[in-house]
Each structure stands twice: as structure tokens, then as C-alpha cells.
Amino acid sequence: MSATARCLEAMEGPGSGSSRFLLFPGKEHRTSVTAAEFKKWLKQFDADGDGRISRRELREAIGHRGAWFASVKAWCAVRRADMDRNGFVDDCEMESLVEFAENELGFLISKEPTPDGRNHCRW
Q: What is the rounded CA–CA span in Å between residue 25 and residue 96?
């Protein structure tokens, strides 16, 4: 079960998983970008310029992409990515948001390794 399906089940209650097939498009509609391009695209929705992505800002980004239920998807994404539970996705938590975007929002994101070969906090 995907992260969004778990979030929807938590919000709607158990046994409501049939809506998953109606809410999210298949992989045939994916947009291919690099992690740097995804972050650059996401930064344009950072309304207050603090370098972090709030649930409201992420909702705007998801809605701009034309996805249905942007509020629910943004809530699920921030809940999953926000490790320190401050309500924002910052640079070090961005990897989880990239993973969510790839699995749930229709992005195909190629990861760019850092010079030391690791993929963490490189934004």
C-alpha cells in the first residue's frame, strides 16, 4: 500500500481503499525531471522565501500541476517527509518529498549523486 493510500485510509477509515484507483493517474503520465529540476520547480512555490516548503505551498504546487485532491496529497506528503514534525519540509527532508513525488505525483525523478556518492541533503 502506498503512502498516500495509507494517509487516505487514516483520514477516511479502514476499508475505503477503493478510491485509490480513481484519484491517482497511472505511470503513463509521468514527467521526467532531475532532482535539481524538481527542486527548482518546487522553489517557485516558496511564497515566503524561507527555503522550506509548507503544506500550503506544496498544495499550490500540486494544484498547479493539475492534480486532483491537492490538499490531501500535500497533507500526506508533508506528513511523510517532515521528520522533525515542524510542519515544513526543509533541505534535509527533501529526499522523502522527492520519493513521494515520484511515487504519488507522477514525476520520474533521476537522482544525481553527490561527489562522495551519497544522495542526502544536496539541494
A: 20
Q: What is the mean pLDDT of the chain?
A: 76
59 residue type, one letter: R
> How many Å apart are CA 107 and CA 109, to the nearest integer?
6
Mean pLDDT of 25-51: 80
Assess contact for 85 and 17: CB atoms under 8 A. Answer: no
What are residue 53's DSSP bridge partners? 89
Round to the nearest angstrom and report the end-to-end CA distance of the chain.
29
- Taking Cα atoms as reference points, which of 102, 82, 116 lies closest to residue 34? 102
Residues 6+ apart with CB under 8 A from 28: none
> What is the average per-residue pLDDT within 61-83?
91
Reading the block at residue 110, the C-alpha cell is: 533521476
